[in-house]
Design a protein that fits this description.
By secondary structure, the protein is α/β, with parallel strands linked by helices. The chain has two domains: 4-279, TIM Barrel, CATH 3.20.20; 296-376, DNA polymerase beta, N-terminal domain-like (DNA polymerase, domain 1, Orthogonal Bundle). 46% of the residues lie in helices and 12% in strands. The structure holds iron/sulfur cluster.
């Protein structure tokens, strides 16, 4: 299978998200030096959305566009940004063997002391472990290995050219030994073929045995060419299941699927993962890195508000209630003054004046302030779970 590189010089490298993406990767920025990926997983959302622009999505794994000035741009843009988490990943591919742009970008991240979160499928990540350890000492690094399942049949069907799962788990072990927080992202969970309790529990256990300290799980999204290819892969694996997938995604032949599985299915999966994680002593979210400083309490309180949105989703709560917590989380996360100081000066009434924070959420925030204040403000930034 041919592989071509096309070099170009974009005008910028760092994407700034409108809000931190709690309660998922907790990142505010993303930066990727390559567009396209040699692994070519059938379900990769980068095939389906706006990521490829106008190019043919079928060239996703044969034509890799290379941002040849990535390091230079990073050096220019990063010092102008607030110190928030940058998410990057899936960069360990043939393009990196040749260009080493990700390594150059990591050096800039280290130089400027930014925290970093990596989402990766390749064990080759360990070749940059020296730099990751240094970044972790200066600020913080978290790594999540994407592993949908331990079942070789699923790997062959949906991601035939990605690196082997056992090698990923070995790399996880090495990363954990180096003192970096690492876990597994069970994304995507494949409906009806990879979502049984046994399947999921095997992966939770393998994560734990490999030194992983958290699990994150998410469903399969379906869009455009990516959806067609993923369904074709399922058809090759087990044609009898096509109808069930079509039913789940409300996808009539000739029509379009819904983007994500229905809320009830996602909540059922989330609760199952939560139960399995509890059984084996792992959290089902990534504990948030808390930057030491005067706004550390805000970051932790916002984390709690974001986590509440996830709990509510699993409970099947009304979307208006979920949105109320989400908006309050954004408010607290983006506030330039400490909520603890507001509370000390004006009491709960001061919290209630904040945008999108009504009386009942203000009551919760006031209660949390009392419990996080002493512990969290002194956080050393190792991302350890809250003691409150
Ligand atoms: S390794 Fe990651 S980026 Fe590459 S195709 Fe697979 S899911 Fe997409």
């Amino acid at each position: 299978m041919k592989l071509e590189f096309e070099e170009y010089r974009p005008r910028k490298i760092i994407n700034v998200h409108k809000h931190v993406d709690g309660p998922w990767f907790w990142s505010k920025y993303s930066a990727h030096p390559y567009v396209g990926c040699r692994s070519g997983c059938e379900f990769c959302y980068s095939r389906g959305g706006h990521y490829l622009g106008s190019r043919d999505p079928d060239t996703f794994d044969t034509l890799i566009r290379v941002k040849i000035n990535a390091v230079e741009l990073m050096r220019k843009e990063l010092p102008r940004k607030e110190k928030e988490i940058i998410v990057a990943g899936d960069w360990q591919q043939p393009a990196e063997d040749r260009y080493r742009l990700s390594r150059g970008m990591l050096e800039v991240v280290l130089e400027h002391g930014f925290p970093l979160f990596i989402v990766e499928r390749s064990p080759l990540l360990t070749r940059d472990l020296d730099l990751l350890v240094d970044i972790n000492k200066r600020s913080w690094v978290g790594v999540v290995y994407s592993i949908s399942s331990l079942d070789p049949a699923l790997k062959r069907a949906f991601e035939p050219r990605s690196p082997g799962v056992k090698r990923r788990l070995k790399a996880m072990e090495e990363i954990a030994r180096s003192g970096i927080r690492v876990g597994t992202s069970m994304m995507p969970i494949f409906p009806y073929v990879g979502d049984s309790e046994d399947h999921l529990e095997d992966l939770v256990l393998a994560t734990k045995d490999s030194g992983g300290s958290f699990i994150l799980a998410g469903g399969l999204t379906m869009q455009g060419v990516q959806a067609e290819r993923t369904l074709a892969a399922l058809r090759n694996l087990d044609p009898a299941l096509e109808g069930r997938w079509r039913g789940l995604y409300h996808w009539r032949p000739g029509g379009k699927p819904i983007y994500a599985p229905p809320d009830a299915y996602s909540a059922r999966m989330g609760l199952l993962i939560r139960e399995l994680c509890a059984r084996h002593g792992l959290p089902d979210r990534i504990p948030r890195y808390i930057q030491p400083g005067p706004l550390a309490t805000n970051t932790r309180i916002a984390e709690k508000l974001f986590l509440k949105t996830y709990d509510l989703e699993l409970e099947g709560a009304r979307s208006s209630k979920i949105w109320a917590y989400r908006k309050a989380a954004w408010t607290v996360d983006e506030l330039s003054e400490s909520v603890a100081e507001i509370h000390e000066r004006e009491g709960q009434a001061g919290l209630e004046k904040l945008p999108s924070v009504g009386r009942s959420i203000a009551t919760e925030i006031a209660r949390w302030i009392g419990s996080v204040d002493k512990v969290e403000v002194k956080s050393t930034g190792n991302g350890a779970p809250s003691k409150s």
